[in-house]
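Case study.
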Amino acid sequence: MKKFDIAKSKRLRSTPYTSRIENQGVTAYSVYNHMLLPAAFGSIKDSYNHLKEHVQVWDVAGERQVEISGKDSAKLVQLMTCRDLSKSKVGRCYYCPIIDDKAGLINDPVILKLGEERWWISIADSDVILFAKGLAIGKKLDVNIFEPNVDILAVQGPKSFKLMEKIFGTKITEMKFFGFDYFEYAGAKHLIARSGWSKQGGYEIYVQNTKSGLSLYDKLFEVGKEFDVKPGCPNLIERIESALLSYGNDMDNDDNPFECGLDKYVNLDSEVNFLGKEKLKEVRKKGITRKLMGVIIEAKDINVSKSISLTNDENSKIGELRSGIYSPHFKKVIGIAMLDKPYCEVSQKIKISINDVVFEGKVCDLPFI
Amino acid sequence: MKKFDIAKSKRLRSTPYTSRIENQGVTAYSVYNHMLLPAAFGSIKDSYNHLKEHVQVWDVAGERQVEISGKDSAKLVQLMTCRDLSKSKVGRCYYCPIIDDKAGLINDPVILKLGEERWWISIADSDVILFAKGLAIGKKLDVNIFEPNVDILAVQGPKSFKLMEKIFGTKITEMKFFGFDYFEYAGAKHLIARSGWSKQGGYEIYVQNTKSGLSLYDKLFEVGKEFDVKPGCPNLIERIESALLSYGNDMDNDDNPFECGLDKYVNLDSEVNFLGKEKLKEVRKKGITRKLMGVIIEAKDINVSKSISLTNDENSKIGELRSGIYSPHFKKVIGIAMLDKPYCEVSQKIKISINDVVFEGKVCDLPFI
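After joint prediction, the assembly is written out as follows.
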């Protein structure tokens, strides 16, 4: 596959860590929320192997925050998600599909409840702030909405716990998954959550004090030497094996949460009021017509830069591949595909044309591992 | 400056023309509205010289459309912009700042009035569709909002008129600036506007029928041979010389239209109702505290990947450079900067540090040419 340079500009914002990761050998960027997101430090396979064994520090400042505070903040946040947040607790993170009035997905952020009237929506790649502003203006809600100056550092991998303990003490190892708390470093308080976009364990540090954050960045690499720390980024192999869905890749505004297998985050029988509730009740009643599933393909390489049709033995289109990569674990290409309902059966055979060569494969459940 | 690959994925959508421009030698991409936007075909200077003399075809599918139709469509469109559209005409394009209730810029699209109850907002790089949906839901407006399948081809440069005449006949040369009309090609009707993101003249073809559009793409290169047609893209040198502002680079949500010199698109004395009107009246009364101006710098090269501080002789910060490039015409670096009001005077001296070397420069009016 041909390679192309990314044309940098202020519009594709750099992060406070950009100069550091460029000195550390970043080789490719994606763009996420109008910001540079590192996509590779050389081989993605090597980085995958390293992530599963050791610990990595990721510049994921592109995961921007939408801060919503004020008297009506809980009402607005609930309006945007089909997950019931009425019993949500301060100090916890919640994975929440955000949907519009037609139940089409707009984003799938993690929402942090900072206080009864203060929330951070830690967004995937779409301008949720504009949706929130539009709703708040239209409904005359008493809220304050803005993008705070938060640049997340993720510390991911099995050795992340030991590394973070060395810096922040044992208290940080006692934090439960999707909990968050505040920790001091270099004169600043950092919100740290036990979360991150891998299934290898770890933390996300919501850096608000840039100076302290940069010092912490360097400290992580200094202290991390004994744990073989390396710079990294969300890893395409690992995230597909783990079925961490990517908004814009695996799902978008034309999909509803049921089609994306997000059923457990859809609380239709609750009392809470959210957009698309009636529409989702209809969908539940009628049943979905397609669904995100895994596929395993008998191929050694793939580049998915747009959706690729999947066909059955009769050469009829039965779905589309939306993400895919060669998995060293399975020694095959694995991917995430939207499949028509009749074909959402494990072991259903599929065919796919990659660079004009037809490969065979089969449907499987998500996650792969 | 180091170069980095762009990591392609479905989330950074390819366009129908991507495979063609890759065969034609595109070397760099930007990302615009979650889509690949070509940023260079080799030397930007060579492309600049060519654009000013001949004709180029640009894949600007990243200029996405937000279609708003229905009984309340005019009301919603007007609500989002400070430009008075009450006398707008079907068949015309309107450059319109879109602002929020605090008068902060959200986008600066060209709005096409397709019918009394049907509009296209041809957007710069932010998800205006989410703002429109939020407002429509909140205000219970009777509208239909979606992103139609439109992939714009721009034909730009002084010879664009002759090239387009050869394909579409003399009628197309009679179109006025910012007018649009429909033209047949290969069995499909294409909306073509006399517009484009350069000051060298030309057209934008709003391709809805992809098959016909691809055939037209090839035809433009076939017929264009005699006019020395080349593939191209928005040119950083040309657009800065012409002061075509770029949302996300030169201005963003922290700026209001007056600060960006967009006064003639702010109609505060009209009867129309739009967001931020009271706020803008306040701004007009108090006066602005900073403004976008041109700067000419005694340097031979610059890369602006984030804003760069500008200082005065006393080393106090007096503004920031937001875009900049070496101009072959001026044989100096030129740029667009937000300057504190006391320093918005033509010939005001400025200093700027580029790669740790301090350069001198001065303030000037926009546009440069």
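Observations recorded in class. The two ends of chain B are 28 Å apart (CA to CA). Chain B has a mean pLDDT of 97. We will return to this complex in the next lecture.
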